[in-house]
Amino acid sequence: MKILGIGSRINHPEFGKGVVTNVSQKEYWVTFIENGLETIDIDSTFEVIELTENELDTVSFYDVEQSLLSILKKWNGLGEPVAIGDKWKGGKMILDPGQAGLASKEVPIDVFFHKIVMLRDRLRVMEQKINTSSIEEIEKVELQQYITRIYGSLTTFNVLFKSTTDYFVGEKSK
Q1: Which residues are CB-neighbours of 65 under 8 A, at least 6 positions away?
Q2: Which of 26, 27, 8 is nearest to 18 (CA)?
Q3: Of 35, 58, 118, 138, which one has the fewest beta carbons inside 10 Å?
Q4: Residue 42, phi then psi, degrees to nearest 5
């Protein structure tokens, strides 16, 4: 089976005539005259009107996006997606000032939660950088102890996480 290149024209039994505008490992992205953009499986049934072969290996936008996300996760400390507890979805925090005459502030919990997760991810990156740095071992241990105490201070926010595996963990009692 020959893979169609970008620019190939086809006639699909359901969508009609169209042009291949992108190719991934499993499907073609085809812009059809009457049905707009559709994705169809590479092995689906259609008539090839005009075949265009790619001289270069093509990579789909999706593949590029996944590669970029992988690189960012590796080098920028972006962790896996972390879920907020179901009971908090769509909720809001209300901050009431202690002084009379000042307005309350509402913050969507999802926004606050996202900031907490970013803080945790950045702490993890700092921890990795400390561990791989060339500073003295005694300084590494002291910095690790500070980070552990920071994690301990953040355990208050564990109530927001859906999964206990995402919780902040501070210093364990002996």
Answers
A1: none
A2: 8
A3: 138
A4: -60, -35
